[in-house]
Amino acid sequence: xxxxxxxxxxxxxxxxxxxxxxxxxxxxxxxxxxxxxxxxxxxxxxxxxxxxxxxxxxxxxxxxxxxxxxxxxxxxxxxxxxxxxxxxxxxxxxxxxxxxxxxxxxxxxxxxxxxxxxxxxxxxxxxxxxxxxxxxxxxxxxxxxxxxxxxxxxxxxxxxxxxxxxxxxxxxxxxxxxxxxxxxxxxxxx
Length: 190
Fold this sequence. Notes:
Layout: E1 6-9, H1 17-29, H2 44-47, H3 70-79, E2 84-88, H4 97-108, E3 123-125, E4 138-141, H5 144-152, E5 156-160, E6 171-172, H6 174-187
């Protein structure tokens, strides 16, 4: 497989957006929801119709915890020598979310790659990911809606298994994605 570019989603793939949101929700409402309670991106089961943006604090974006596999995933993508960037779709009205994501990438990702860069310099924000991704790209994603749209335009999508994409085709555990990336690294033509 010869991919022209690799795109890595941030929230739900590298950063625990849902965990942070639920932490704030639980603190305000005296509940104890965990990410397994979120079965869709509208958060309807948990938030009961409330706008999730009501649960963002000033440090929301920079306070997201990295998933245990985040650094290893990025290092493996980097080691393929395929052009890559972090791709995020930001909701309207979230204020400093772009700068927050840049800061998050710079703080939480290992900077000791052979090719030195600042991770936040590789952040691409698009209102719709299909405006950036093209056929022949590989995308690491957690949204089943984005995966469906991106596959329809000819991109390959590694859909990270999360509670909100249960039942979606092509779901992969973090270990399966890491195994695929190791295979890709070994088979990329330099």
